[in-house]
């Protein structure tokens, strides 16, 4: 990995099932994530994706690219245009910085997820790709 490296785009079809399943999995029972009629009553044209589902998709995008041993260190995102059913979100990313250490390489990746009405998500992800061998967590530590 190197600064300026562009990650291949990932197209994510936005379905009702994805929106509702993501809300349920993250225990977000707000009606705007599962009830179209109530979402419209609150001014939205339809249900829309919650931030935790978006966060998970951003994490998936990064680990799909950097591999199964990649460790997400930090995910900092901001939402913009909502993801509604029937749209497609395209995630893109660019490596902004790379630091090498005996543990491996740690990269900061700028990520954007855009849909038909604009930018749904923007942010940065810090990810470490271990030099080799299994990933270990220090006793009492966190990754």
Class from helix and strand fractions: alpha+beta
pLDDT averaged over residues: 92
Helical content class: 10-25%
Sketch the topology as an H/E string, one letter per element.
Answer: EHHHEEEE
Walk me through the structure.
The protein is an alpha+beta fold and 143 residues long. 22% of the residues lie in helices and 39% in strands. The chain contains three helices and five strands; from the N terminus they run E-H-H-H-E-E-E-E. It has helices at residues 16-25, 36-41, 51-66; strands spanning 6-13, 71-79, 88-101, 104-115, 118-130. The protein has a five-stranded antiparallel β-sheet, covered by helices on one side. 27% of the residues are buried.
Provide the descriptors you would attach to this structure in a database record:
143 residues, alpha+beta
List the topology elements.
Elements: E1 6-13, H1 16-25, H2 36-41, H3 51-66, E2 71-79, E3 88-101, E4 104-115, E5 118-130
Antiparallel strand pairs: 1-3, 2-5, 3-4, 4-5
Write a concise synopsis of the structure shown.
The chain is α+β, with helices and mostly antiparallel strands. The protein has three helices and five strands, in the order βαααββββ.
């Amino acid at each position: 990995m190197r600064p300026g490296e562009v990650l291949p785009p990932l197209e994510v079809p936005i379905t009702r099932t994805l929106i509702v399943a993501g809300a349920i999995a993250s225990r977000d029972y707000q009606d705007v994530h599962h009830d179209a009629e109530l979402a419209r009553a609150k001014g939205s044209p339809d249900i829309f994706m919650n931030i935790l589902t978006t966060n998970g998709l951003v994490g998936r995008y990064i680990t799909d690219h950097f591999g199964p041993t990649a460790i997400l260190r930090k995910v900092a995102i901001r939402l913009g245009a909502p993801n509604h059913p029937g749209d497609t979100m395209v995630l893109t990313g660019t490596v902004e910085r790379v630091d090498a250490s005996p543990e491996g390489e740690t990269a900061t990746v700028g990520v954007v997820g855009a849909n038909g009405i604009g930018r749904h998500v923007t942010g940065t992800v810090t990810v470490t790709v271990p030099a080799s061998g299994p990933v270990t967590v220090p006793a009492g530590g966190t990754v």
